[in-house]
Amino acid sequence: MGSPFGRGVAEGLPFVVIMVPFGALFGVLGVEAGLPLAQVMGFSVLVIAGASQFTAVQLMTDGVPAAIVVLSALAVNLRMVMYSASIVPHLGSAPLWQRALVSYMLVDQTYALAVQTYEGRPAWTVADKIAYFAGVSLPVFPSWVGATWMGAVLGARVPAGWQLDFALPLAFLALVGPMLKTRAHVIAALVSAVAALAFAWVPWNLGLIVAAVLAMLAGAEVERRA
């Protein structure tokens, strides 16, 4: 387990505890929303972004226009652009095919672990960093896809008492908490929470987009002044 790849696998394994109920919940909700199994699995294999997938399915269930569904899903996933920009200094010189695979597997869990580990190990080569990222991804992706399939197949047969919906807030709390390292991070998180509650009345969940924009502006302003 001393290799970067082995370390990545070991540090990525705990996320299975979150990814399994998270993916199963999406599978259940996707089937309940009327999507066939192929479309539910297509979401998880092609999009690989739980928050935007839940957002899209919920809006589709509510009969929201397709343009709003796409816009909302893209807005939720805008954080991936920031993830990409943040990780370029570490992996930007890797071969194109490796960067393509990293971009495919760049999700909240893999990014959170990778960027923190890279910063703590400046002596690692690009090959070491790629190997670590691959190791982290190994338990994360199969558990997400497999759990989605399990939830979609079981569908309504999953007992209501399991309360799988706990996985959504828990997953993001586990990711966001350790990353609140500066005043700008804390202010952005606080503004996003307050604004999301204040704009909860906005139709089609568009209040979340407003909250995200306000949070980014607040964090950027704090960073500028500092």
Automatic annotation (TrEMBL):
Record-level GO BP terms: L-valine transmembrane transport
InterPro entries in UniProt: Brnchd-chn_aa_trnsp_permease
Membrane topology: Multi-pass membrane protein
Localization in the cell: Cell membrane
Transmembrane segments: 12-31, 64-85, 130-154, 160-180, 187-220
Keyword Zinc-finger belongs to the record: no
Keyword Lipid metabolism in annotation: no
Keywords assigned: Cell membrane, Membrane, Transmembrane, Transmembrane helix, Transport
A GO cellular component entry from the record: plasma membrane
Family to which the UniProt record says this protein belongs: Belongs to the AzlC family.
Entry protein name: Inner membrane protein YgaZ
Organism: Jannaschia rubra
Gene that this sequence comes from: ygaZ
